[in-house]
Queue: 4 jobs
Job 1
Amino acid sequence: MSGQEAHIENTLWMKAVVMGSIFLLIGVAAYATMGVGMANVRHHEYEEAVHEYEDAKHAYEDAKAANASEDEISQLYDLKTEAHHHEIDAHLSYLTWRTAGITILLMCGTYASFIGLGGFLNSIQPQDDGHDSHDDYGYGGGHEHHGSGSPIVFAFGIMLFLMGFPSFQATLKDMLAGNEAALGDLGMSMVGLMIVVIGVSNWWREDLPFIGNNEQLATSDPFAGQHIRKAGLWIFIMSEIMVFATFFSAYLRMRTEWCTGWQVEAGNCSQVNMLTASDFLRPNGAKLGDIGGQGDFMTLLPGAINTFALIISSYTIVLALKTANTKASEWKASQGFMGKIMPTQKAAIRNYLIATLMLGSLFIVLKLIEWSHLVAEGFTIETQAGSIFYIATGAHGLHVFIGLLVMLYLVFKADTVGFDEKNAQGIEYFGLYWHFVDLAWVVIFPAFYLY
Amino acid sequence: MGEHETHGIIENIFDGLLGKDIYFWNFIILMVFTLFEVGAVFFEGIPLTTVWAILIGVGIVKGYGIAAYFMHLKGDPRIYTRTALFPVLFVLLMLWGIGLSNPGSVQGLPDWCTPNWDYARNR
């Protein structure tokens, strides 16, 4: 994507560094207020609730041991149950704030690393004189478009990261547990991450000045005459469909062996032997021993909000593309509030992309809050149902997060050189990926949360 | 999005309705159907098969809305739709495999067509 048709001052990249700093500040502020301030208050309440529950439990057991009247025992049992529910609520409330604070900090830290490092690496490059340098690549000085090696660098970095990942995660686990850790084992993954950042930075440098001329067209069937990047993206989406189909087939195959609440209700078996995530999330879920079956409106709410968030974000990116594709002479600012926050075409595109970024970030935060609640309630990755749930929804969440990193760059480009009808393909092709992520959620949500 | 404009029956009904384009109405339909989907599991007394039918039906409508209009497969050349649908072959193979590998789901097939259940049970 190295069009190199618009002159880009290196100082422009410093704006990315400023954006990175802002993200870091937001992350630290969110962590301080939510992850520490609010979480500490909730933790204090949780500790009190634990004491209250312990007292109620002892009072009930003492009354039973002392052969107290049935009325008294029944009253104490109700108090114990109420204290237990209060303890669970207090624990989940604490987890909500703590997880939200940590997640926002980690997300903003990653945003800051990508956009800040990418901007910094580009800002220290020798100043581009703005000339098209196709001659250097042996293209004869015309305006023919040439490819980019950055995706290969990026893929190489990912490969190294994954090769080192087993020892990377083991070392991190040791560090978090306070055990002695061999820091050298982090090496390969860290080198991989550095190569990823370098690859991404170079990719951005190549794409930022691209103003949409000389888009390469496929010359042979079956995509003859189509934009080669769009065809490539659809083939990528095709491979992604197969990845998610694998998760679903594994899930369906395993479900045929489980006796779930649904199977019992359908009369196919009599005793529940496996709790699925939906038993913890939706109302009337099955119980197995003491766990499961506590689902209500509030437990399903994060998943439901996430579903709406992804649909709205799909629409906001459509609006960004539609605005970019509108001729400047035909574009008019809306009346009222929308007109105030989107006074110009450039601001409208940028703000629609920011809205998409925020909705996607909300998705990740709510997802991790929901996971923390599920784990606290006993739905862990150790069970078959937990394993497929966390892998499938985790893989989807990872796709959302990677999309957010790309979106960061789109926001930066929209705010600097801007998008118009000539270079709107960037938004269109990213939009295809984002809609696919939404589409995957359309299947994941009912299959894992409601069924 | 001029290159993605389509003129089917649905587009003729919705595009331009109340001054809004097809993307807006697609968005509204997706939101309404999601409400319907979430609501279905809250109502006690709805038969299980009905809830399944609702979840699958809503999923198909939402999937079509996203793929056809937001991903503009409806206005793009057919090759993109074929590319997107290509994995369906493998999904069908997987479903076939799930059916054959589960003793409870397929009954009455000839021996040569079913896996060795003894092996599966004793492995």
Note: Residues 87-123 of chain B form one domain.
Job 2
Amino acid sequence: MNVTVKLFASFQKGRFTIEQRAYPAATTVREVVTGLAIPEQELGIMMVNSRHVKLDQELADGDTLALFPLLGGG
Amino acid sequence: MAIPWHCFPFSAAAEMTTLHDYLREQATEGILPWTRQRRAMVRFGCTCYQVEEAALGLGILPARYQRNRETVSIEDQLTLLRSRVAVIGCGGLGGYVVEELARLGVGQLVVIDPDCFEEHNLNRQLFSLPANLGQAKVAAAQKRVAALNPAVTLLPLQETFNSDNGPELLAGVQLAVDCLDSIPVRLELAEVCEALNIPLVHGAIAGWYGQVTTQFPGDRTLQTLYQGRQPVKGVEQQLGNPSFTPAVIAGLEVAEACKVLLGKGETLRRRLLSIDLRLMQLHETTLTES
């Protein structure tokens, strides 16, 4: 299946901004994150088709996954 | 009509009428200039807050709020003056948030931060100066606000917010503004606000990036957002924070605070606004409890 992956803010560094990528059916958000070498503790918002999801969310063909880093500063 | 019953020395009804008459007489086209406001304070032994409250109750606008007028009506200005808002964290975000709330005319601010200024704060924290390094951030905030809007009372609390002292620190506030730099403390703040039925405006920053949302009791937006994963810090640990990111995010937080206090406009309820100042992009995420 094809999933559009969008990376935001510091996640773009050394990776990409947006890419269409092929994954096996029922790949989870966690598997995509691991494949991109993004440390889990840096993850903030994870969105599939503009809605916030959890790491164990399974992706479907045609989904758009967006990943934002965790921001905590004040 | 608002009666400033707490005017000192004595609040006999006759004297109040006199203050009201005086304010009506001194206002020009509904505007009360600062010199005349000062004169009313001296003449009637009232605080700045009391004169502003009396004036606004009569539909007279203290001149300092003239440019608020198309955004905030006189009635709204009185609501803001009578509002009590807690700002938790008085660093990068908190400095700008306190400054903007005071200029907007929010009458009572409770500012909570245990820290003193250090040299690495000088690149962004509004109240930090070489001259006040080592001094309490909340004390600097109090000094600044007293100088810029004497109608505003700032209660400085040099304490670390937590779920134990939270209910006491937030007692009587209508709204809390999150300017913290710790994710676990943010989650404690969200729980305390939930228990006390207080809406919460959230902001967080790292490097070029920031985010804002507003949660009302029952929404549990922050709990959803941070999903029980509790590293103390986010990517700001690597990225640091430049001068402009806290200013931008704090401005958005104060706009949200203004709307919540006045019950006007559209807030970021169940919506997270993510801001990338490097690429100048805004993204909105719909947040539902999970």
Note: Strands of chain B lie at 31-32, 61-62, 84-88, 108-112, 153-157, 175-178, 200-206, 209-215, 271-276, 281-286.
Job 3
Amino acid sequence: MASLNTYRSGPDEGGHFGQFGGRFVAETLMPLILEVERAYTAAKADPSFQTEIDYFAKHYVGRPSPLYYAERITEHLRRGGKGAKVYFKRDELNHTGAHKINNCMGQILLARRMGKRRIIAETGAGQHGVATATVCARFDLPCVIYMGVEDIERQKPNVFRMKLLGARVVPVTSGSRTLKDAMNEALRDWVANVDNTFYIIGTAAGPHPYPAMVRDFQSVIGNEVREQIMEMEGRGPDSLVACIGGGSNAIGLFHPFLDDKDVRMFGVEAAGLGLDTDKHAASLTGGRPGVLHGNRTYLLQSDDGQILEAHSISAGLDYPGIGPEHSWLKETGRVEYVSATDDEALEAFKSCARLEGILPALEPAHALAFVKKLAPSLPKDHLLVMNLCGRGDKDVFTVAEALGTEI
Amino acid sequence: MSPSGAKSRLEQRFAELKAQGRGGLITFTTAGDPTFESCLELVRGLPDAGVDVIELGMPFSDPMADGPAIQASSLRALGAGMTLAKTLDLVRRFREKDEQTPIILMGYYNPIYSYGVEAFLSDAKRAGVDGLIVVDLPPEEDAELCLPALKADLHWIRLATPTTDDKRVPTVLANTSGFVYYVSIMGITGTRTAQADVVRVAVERLKRHTELPIAVGFGIRTPEHAANIARVADAAVVGSAMVERIKGGLDSEGRPRPGMVPDVLGFVRALAAGVRKARNG
């Protein structure tokens, strides 16, 4: 496909990125979706909205997050006079331990502007649920979190955190009992409570305007990287790497750089037990376009168009779809999409802990697994930035189990 | 009006109802629930039991607008190997013995998108489908399936809801044909029950905008309630109560017990009797 003048102008008026995106929702929700879009457009045009976000980003979330030269990983990956200089964008140092709060802060401030009195959200790993429960506590709004019973079992510490923060966690027993079903259940709640409820979607997916709105709130990541690397290296990055579940941390890192033609970008999907098995979560590599949860995007699905269960050791990547902008960036060829298996992610998790003294979440451990493959062949002056989008405290039980260790 | 100009099965049926001075009964069941054969037997019995329009659900793994009863029916059907192609086959088998009763397919877009829009429309038309209700395709996405369906001479039945305000009603009605399906509650199927007097106001509001018949559904569970709705609307739709009745007729392995189909048809007869005496009771 011919390269475009800009990759940053989407979506169009109907919420489309090329053929992807859109507004595939029931009529009950449609007036509300349009209302969210109007409110968000107005907020974007109002400088006081950004001022408010900036205030809480700085004083509550702890932004800017550091850009850190991962010297020992870099040395570890160097051989034969080659090996890129690896930087970590430390979004795991945010309040609540992941990038998710960037989006939650933006959305709850919008919900307040709209006068909504009740917040709902879905969660897989629990990071988005915790971030949502956190901002709800801070702004004194009742919070209901939908979470699949499978995930509740895998992520007990986060369930307890949400409860401590005052949220009601509703176990979802329908379908495959994971993230996609939690999203279905949140949508069902929303249909029944449109008058007073705002749905804080956790990733850059869902009906328009969510993919664009979540991207905008997460773009703080890439915007900071641009400034920070200029300060540290006097120039921009050569490549960017981020893990992809729904894709919000990746789009937040990539989007500000999409028109920097020399910057290569890699989205790393979860290959689970392997792409040649049916136990993975790589919707771009192993799926095809379809319509689910309000947008057209790549989906894991059967020949009959039934949605399949995803699998990943990382609950946060365990989703059979992906944000529509990534589907478009794949088709245009602007971003390269690759994958890492459960085992590769575990290895990366261990080396990050030993070499850098950082326990990464299993999600960015997938990104690091790919960095380990990519960096050694690149020149020494190649600047590679990886989004370390979450910390691994939540995953120690999963990792222990995978390593066969009793805690 | 049917896009082809001649009166469609669906228009013919609503014209008959009008002539008889009564509201109609529409039942929803999920195609292939719990098996293809039991479903075919049930659907074949519906017209004699008093159903005026048959609505068949196209099973989907992620039915976002449906409550637990219809979700479960979808999973039962999929678990028994139901596919969209088999749903069309079910309609074709029904049509071998019934040329009059309109059949509407209701469901979600992805299985149709996966099947291929053009192939689906021509196969559906050939099988004897009369119209489509696709929950996750609002007017904003009409280019996807609505406009091609109208061109293929299938009715496009749209849902109007309590959140569809006067300003939005014309948008919703613009490409609607056959009838308008008024969702009487805010919420998913089978959860709440609307009061007839609230529904009356809503139907009157829609009637100011359209000549199309108005069917009312979501939360209609009993013959009495169906009768109350049929008094104020052109038809009442019963869905969750139907699939719960089917579920009640399954054995512990999820197979239909011998009496399942007659029991469901008995329930349908009671609904039909309620609807029929509504306006002269």
Note: The mean pLDDT of chain B is 95.
Job 4
Amino acid sequence: MHELAIVEALIEQVGTELDRAEQKGAVKRLEIAVGRLSGVHCDSLRFAFNLLSPGTIAEGAELSIREPSAISRCRQCGTSTEITEMVIDCPLCGSPEIAIEKGRELLLESIDIED
Amino acid sequence: MKLIAAKSILKANDQLAVENRQRFDAAGVFCVNMVGSPGCGKTTLLEALFSHLRGSLRLAVIEGDIAGSIDAERMEALGVPVVQINTEGACHLDANMTASAVAQLDLTDVDLLIIENVGNLVCTAGFDLGEHLRIVVLGATEGDDKAVKYPAIFQGSNALVISKTDMLPYTNFSIPRITADMKRLAPDAPVFQVAALKREGTPKLAEWIAEEKTKR
């Protein structure tokens, strides 16, 4: 459900970025990064974007979603591993002391504007 | 042309949260964001914490609910200053709603502000409200697999409170399992066991919150 709130925030931020860069052209494409452990569902995000973008600055823009992998690092042996769930032991040494390094991103990466 | 933004989508919320925190710090207010499923016992825990802390700290409460003011009335009955936020469908509080609620409180009369978030283990995880501590409450009747199933909320929390521990004999809830899972997600977060209606374990939690306050 909070995908709606996230899309609202995204559209608001696109407006802020365009104002800052003093750009008035139509938005063609938005590139965002949604980490695999961000807790955000990409299909719901697309659905919310189609629902909320008409009538806003982001109307008609293509939403391109990159899904960065989740990476954990073992606090004991230092090994970095790609993971698919958060509650795991280190695959190398078996230690439960792991830190999530990547995969929680929720970023507006770039905006393509019509010239 | 391509405009490179490279900013968090929730930047607007995060900025407002920083402002809320600055406001709390300036007023000497310690703020706790309490999260957990509907029915895990957040309001009962608040009542218990108030009974333990009323002599030493001036408490205020912000109640977040989709509708109604049942929780706010419970706190009001105890004489606690309380502001009710009705999210009208939204599944979590955000920093903006928090700022509006805080504006209705006189912070000079408050030492400890506890925000009871909307009952939800998913959506509340992404939104910083400006709190100093986030405490996640999990009822012993909810199952010991919740940290694995809803990791984000546990990972970002500073303490886990297992509530309704007087029900443990009637469940297959394993304290060692949830403790081990929490350790993986938040190695520094303490785990408390409480039965709030009987005020068991709640004095220790109250003591910990008061101690955390002195560290700020």
Note: Chain B has a mean pLDDT of 95.
